[in-house]
Specification:
This protein is of the alpha/beta class and about 250 residues long. The protein folds into three domains: about 10-85, Winged helix-like DNA-binding domain superfamily/Winged helix DNA-binding domain (Arc Repressor Mutant, subunit A, Orthogonal Bundle); about 85-140, no CATH class; about 150-245. It has nine helices and nine strands.
């Protein structure tokens, strides 16, 4: 076996031995290998002169291990760089940017923006030239995009509420959605702007994780058909706060 071509399993076994672990069973368990596999690789390592008869790493073994780990580090670093380059974020340019610029990422009205001005700790590299308001792809993103999570208020329409015309205020930063025909007519009769009519439950959760609060109107009869979707989405997005208000 070539001293410069240790397999990954052999490198991991040598590393485990270096940590002081010599039990075949515990080595197999920690590396998620079979005992037979560990025994086979130990035999190969001894035959190559990397281990002595007491399974101690020899000088030749240390040198091969060092070369192998350096090669592995180089491969991992290269792969991570490729992932960073190929994993891009969609953003809207805030101001003019050029390809290669360091840009800072922030949320504005539910959408990700990129600016050369430092507006958050999250930053990346612009992959193209972009004018103010244009699309720009950003890679190598580090840091956290700060954002206040939105909330969902479900207004459940009862029979009494259907005939009531009590005014329901609407905040300008809030989206309004409806679930079903009764909820749509309820809003129309009261002059309420409706932003979302279809896939409303999913759209509301998506808006919340983008920092936009929502209110959703639904009849008490229709609500029962959406409880399963609500349960699933609340498990997927536990950070989203939602509540029910009966009108």
């Amino acid at each position: 076996m070539n001293s410069e071509n240790l397999t990954l399993n052999q490198l991991m076994i040598l590393s485990t031995l270096l940590d002081g672990e010599h039990s075949i069973g515990r080595i197999a368990e920690s590396l998620r290998m079979t005992r037979q596999g560990v025994v086979y690789h130990l035999r190969q390592l001894r035959a190559s002169g990397y281990l002595n008869d007491e399974d101690k790493i020899t000088p030749l073994g240390f040198e091969a291990m060092r070369k192998g780990l350096l090669d592995l580090r180089s491969r991992l670093t290269t792969s991570l760089e490729r992932i960073d380059r190929q994993t891009s974020w969609e953003a809207i340019s805030s101001g003019n940017v050029r390809s290669g610029d360091t840009v800072y990422l922030f949320m504005d009205n539910g959408y990700l923006h990129a600016s050369r001005d430092k507006k958050s700790s999250a930053k990346g590299i612009a992959q193209s030239d972009a004018s103010d308001g244009d699309f720009v792809s950003v890679t190598g993103v580090t840091g956290i995009v700060s954002m206040e999570m939105g909330k969902i208020r479900f207004y459940v329409i009862t029979d009494e509420g259907w005939y009531s015309y009590e005014e329901l205020p609407q905040e300008t930063s809030e989206l309004t959605g409806v679930l079903g025909e009764k909820a749509l007519l309820f809003c129309r009769k009261r002059g309420l702007r409706v932003d979302v009519e279809y896939a409303t439950v999913e759209a509301s959760f998506d808006a919340c994780i983008r920092g936009i609060s929502c209110r959703v109107f639904v009849s008490d009869q229709r609500l029962r058909y959406h409880l399963a979707a609500l349960s699933e989405l609340s498990r997927k997005y536990p950070q989203v706060d939602f509540s029910f208000i009966y009108v």
